[in-house]
Every structure is written in structure tokens, then in C-alpha cells.
UniProtKB/TrEMBL annotation:
SUPFAM superfamilies: LmbE-like. PANTHER family: BLR3841 PROTEIN, N-ACETYLGLUCOSAMINYL-PHOSPHATIDYLINOSITOL DE-N-ACETYLASE-RELATED. The lineage of its organism: Bacteria, Bacillati, Bacillota, Clostridia, Lachnospirales. Pfam families: PIG-L. One of its GO terms (molecular function) is hydrolase activity, acting on carbon-nitrogen (but not peptide) bonds, in linear amides. This is PIG-L family deacetylase.
Amino acid sequence: MLPERILVLVPHPDDEALLASGVISRAVSEEKQLWTAIATNGDYLCGDYTKGSRRLAESLAAMSYLGLPKERVLFLGYPDTGMEPEASFLSGLLRETDLENLHTSCASRMTYGITGGKPDFHMEQTGCHGWYHRKGFEEDMDRLMKMVKPQLVITTSRYDIHGDHSALSHFTEQALMRYVLSGYEKPLLWEGLVHSPAGDCRWPVPDGEDSDFTLPDGMEHLPDFLSSWEQRIRIPVLEDDRQAGRKRTAIQMYASALKDEEPEVVRYLLSFAKREELFFEIPYEVTASASCIP
């Protein structure tokens, strides 16, 4: 069902648990080689490293609970500057035509990881932090692909209404094209939906851990998504994990995302704990124009 080498690549700390806790646990139990990589630190509106470090530490703890060692959890270390496309950091990079134009956040101008703990990926790979610009981000994506050598990449959906989520979909596809152009075997690309155009109140339906994902109302304006629904990839959560509520427990380890247990936020996040995880395979053409870095 799953190939030997898998990369779960997500925008923020907690997205890996929402989309793929079941896949991660299954891969660990089947002794697959799986990595998670988190593009931003989730440090929205924080003027220092405290929030980002805390959220990354929550990811480490949740992944450890699922059996993934910290060496397989990678922090790209870029900022979270908002949800709307005009505010989103990754959307801003995607629109950027000057590859070395510096984008800043409240917290930093350079990548960072957990203060006093696990460093960011750029630091691990090069010995220094990386600047917040498109060239640096794309180079980190290229380093990531060549290090992991994935046969399958799981990321967020191009239909997601969070700017970071949809932009990461495009950056991932471009990075895979460059990876294949460098002579590597073409990986599969699966996408999962976190923030649906139908609204967080409609997706996922909060109908319990013994339920499947259902197509929400409010997606009629997305015919491509609707047509792909019948070809959706449904990965069952392991029975032991489902009985033990392991995905629910993993999600609950992200205290920052739960926002002091606001009922609507908790309902939304825990609604991802179902008996399956849902993905859509994205076919992509490999063309020379995918290379954005000279």
C-alpha cells in the first residue's frame, strides 16, 4: 500500500498530524523510511522565537508518540505570516519574481528551529541559517528531496484556502519536477485537504472516529475537485491505532493549535480523527520550465 520511502511535507506544526498520523504510524509499524518536514514554524504574530520553538517542540512530541524519531522530523524554519493569500509567507514567495528579495516576519529574517534544541534544516545542511527569500526556500526544497529520495510525497492541497497550504502544493510540484530533471526517479505526489473551500465548519464532518470522510457541500464551484473525488485514495487507520484513539491523542498534543481548548477549534481539529485518511494523487508533467533557480 505504501512505498518504502515517504516524505510528509506540510506548512505548519500540526498539519502532519491532521493529514497523516495514520500513515506515519502505519509506516513506522511496517518499517518504512518516512520523514516529516514542516515548512514554517507556525509563529504567526509572535515577535520572537518562543511560539515557533514551542510549536515545533509539540510536533517532535507528537511524532515521537507515533514512533517517529526526531532525526526523521525536519524543520525548514520559515515564518507563518497569515492565512489569507495576500498575507501568507509562502504565497508571497510564490508570487515573488526577484528570487533574492528578502521577506521578513515579526520574529526573524532567517530560518530557525527549536531554541537550544533541534536546529532548522538549512542549519543542519549548510552550517548556517537561511535567508527568508524564494531562492533559499527552493534550494532547501531541492536539498530535502535529494536527501530523502522519496517515492511518495504527501503535502497539502492546491484547493486549500490557507495561502501557505495552497502555495506549498505548487512549490512541492515544482521541486519534484526539478528533482526528476536532476536524474532521479519520479515520485508519486498525493495531496490532502485541511482548510476546505467549503469552510472549516463543513470539512471534515465531526461524526466520530468510526466514520469516513464525506464530500462536503459548498464545493460545486470546483469541478476538478469534484471529478477527482471518485479517485480519492483512502488509507485505513490501523485497527489497533483506531481502537486506542492514537490519532486523536496525537492531535491533542498540539496545545498551541488547540488555542486553550476553544470548543470550535477542538471540534475542527479532532474531526480529522477518522478510520481513514484521504488523499488525491496529482499527476504532474516534468518540464524544464520547472527550474526557478538559475
